[in-house]
Structures are given as C-alpha cells and as structure tokens.
C-alpha cells in the first residue's frame, strides 16, 4: 500500500506518541501532532512535520483543523480519555475510525464494561457496592483487603489497596480526585499472578494475537505493585482459548465491534483469568514490536494505514496470527526508577546490540525526574527492553544479562532502578 503524500493527525504529543510519528513517517506519511501543551512539553510535536496547539477535546476546533489542513486520517494511541473525541471528530470529517464513540464510552468506563462482562459470563473481579456518604455502614459486608480505583482512569492513577474502613474512606476521596466523572469502584483485592490478552479485530472477526504473563512486583512500600516485565506466551493460553475466549467474542459482537485492537489485563485464580482492565487502543507495553518480530505483522502499522485509508493493508491477516509465536518466546523487561532526577542511563547501547533484543525504548531519558507523585504509577517505568528467544533457557539468560547491564543513575550518583523481573517470577507460567 503506497501512502506517500497522505496526511495523518496524531492526537497527543507525549513521548510515547513518537512511536506513531516514526512509523508513519517511515511510510511516507506527513504527520501533524496536536495537543494544548507548549512545544517543549510535547516530544511528538518536536519530531512531527507539523505542530498544532489545539485541545483534542474541542470537537468544533478539531473539525476545522482537520478540514483546513486536508488531513486524510486521525489517530490516537495510548490514552483512553481521548478516544470518544477521536471517534466524533472522525465522524464529522468523514474519516475512518476503528471504533464508535458509543463503543469507546463503554470500554473506558470500568463500571459499564464490568457489567457487560457479567452479562456474558466473562470472569471479572468481584466488587462491592459502597455508599460513599456512609462508608462505615457499607463496610459491614466488605472483606478486606480491597482495591479502590476510579471508574474512568488509566495508568494506575488513583488506585489504593485498603485494609480497613478508615483507609477505605481516604481511598475513595483519592480515587474520586482522579476520576472525571467522580465515580469509584471498590473491588476484591486479588494478590496473585497476572496475564494480559491482546486482541485484533478485523471486519468483525476477532483474533487473539498474544497472551502474556504480566509480572508485577512488590518492590516499593505503600503503593500497588507495578509491572516489571512480560513473558510470552502464557502457559494458560490453551485453556483460555478453549473456555473463555468464545464468551469474550460474543461480548464484542454484542456492541458491534468491527476493527481495532484491544488489551485485557487479568488476575489469575485457579487458572481463570479475571479481567480488571480493558483498553480499546494501543498500550504502552509496546507488544506490537514482539508481535511483528515473531509473526511478521505490525498492529501499529495496521492502525496507521487504517487511519488514512480505511484498510489495514495486511492481506491474509488471519493466517499470520499465531499467539503461540511459532514455538518461540518473547519478553518485555520493564525497568522502574525510584523517585530522583536521572543523570545517566548506562548500558543502553550494549543491550541494544544484543542479537535477540528487538528494541530498547527509553521512556525517561537523562534529565527527566521521577517525582514522589509518580510513585505507584506506570510513569515510573523508565526503560523497556523487548526481545525474543528460541527457548526458555535462552530467554532466562537474556533477561539476566539485560538486568545486569542497564543502570539508571541519579544526579547524586546513586542507582535508581528498583528490583526487576527475575527467573522465579516466570519460571512456572511460560507455555512449554
């Protein structure tokens, strides 16, 4: 598919959107980026061909911007809150959108999609009905610990683990502060293994691209455990495909999903994946790089082509999809930083040169600061290393080499990286 001369507008200029900019420019597409941040706070604008400074939530302004600048397509990558606006501006401008505003509004609202999952017997984490005006009385039926979170946020914002009613009251107010709608979920806290399922939708056909183990670690006190890596494929994959995936497909069909990609984060209990988070979009784990290396197609490239043409440009997609990765293995090492200002990242180029490393993504370069407010958020992830291996033993050695090579050094000369993924985290949960 020749896209040279096409024009794409990206909604949101955060650093991870540079991924979209680069992929689109490599296709010959002219790229514009808009958000309301100044240029020095919008890395993707600095890389784009054109920069705009309009709010992505002002649909009238966005419609004018798109039409006056002759954009052939619009895309947004990694933020839930922009998705309904994206769908509406595409509809007004008669441009391709992979989902509708109604679909996005269901799939970014935890209360709504959990109700939908219960309708189709899709496992989801049990929750408690809490009267926020009388929390003490509501707690009579609550079995602690519980997890409190906003109904409509992402990135681990506004989430607290609570062990008693006093903590619950504080957590509810904290979660409301991170919610646009001021609505809160109180769920059973499941402290177990995790998995993430990645779907691709193609003209109403639904395919599991990948199922990986999501490894979270208690490596800092007082906050929820954050992911330190992913390993693919998960041992649970065959059971999931047989027992749970068919019900999920019926659920997708019920709201009319046709195209796009979606991830589901799950807690695992008794080999059952209980969904606790959904994103009808790209995810910051960058798994599309793992998929491209193992299966030969790139979901990010597909979404870019769809945005400017209405077609994925990926013939025979179904024949390329293989969640078993052709008998191989893939991984993502996610390195987190303690609060502090980063002076130097050591070992990046040495790791990038390793033959089995697919990519090294630096989320926070030298000069960035991990603040106390970022503690417990996915924003603490500073470096991601994606790689592949032909065997489990080879993967174990690669992950160990990566962890021993990269160092995150503060302006005070201290090492900032938190304890990361270890062999014991994934030894028993890889498909073999």
Features:
globular; eight-stranded antiparallel β-sheet; single chain; four-stranded parallel β-sheet; alpha+beta; 31% helix; 432 residues
Q: How many E-type strands?
A: 19
Low-confidence stretches: none
Radius of gyration using CA atoms only: 21 Å
Shape: globular
- Provide the residue-averaged pLDDT: 94
Largest sheet: 8 strands, antiparallel
Level of helix content?
25-40%
- Describe the strand arrangement of the main beta sheet, using strand numbers: 13-12-9-10-11-14-18-16
Gap between N and C termini: 37 Å
**Strand portion:** 25-35%
Count helical runs.
Answer: 16
Structural class: alpha+beta
Describe what you observe in this structure.
This protein is of the alpha+beta class. The protein contains 16 helices and 19 strands. The protein has helices at residues 18-26, 43-47, 59-68, 83-93, 101-107, 110-119, 135-138, 165-177, 237-243, 245-254, 287-295, 299-309, 317-320, 348-352, 392-405, 423-426; strands at 7-11, 30-34, 50-52, 73-75, 127-128, 146-150, 160-162, 184-188, 194-202, 205-217, 226-232, 260-269, 272-279, 329-336, 340-346, 357-362, 369-370, 381-389, 407-410. The protein has an 8-stranded antiparallel sheet, with helices on both faces. A hairpin with an 8-residue loop joins strand 10 and strand 11. Helix 4 (83-93) packs antiparallel against helix 5 (101-107). The radius of gyration is 21 Å and the shape is globular. The mean pLDDT is 94.
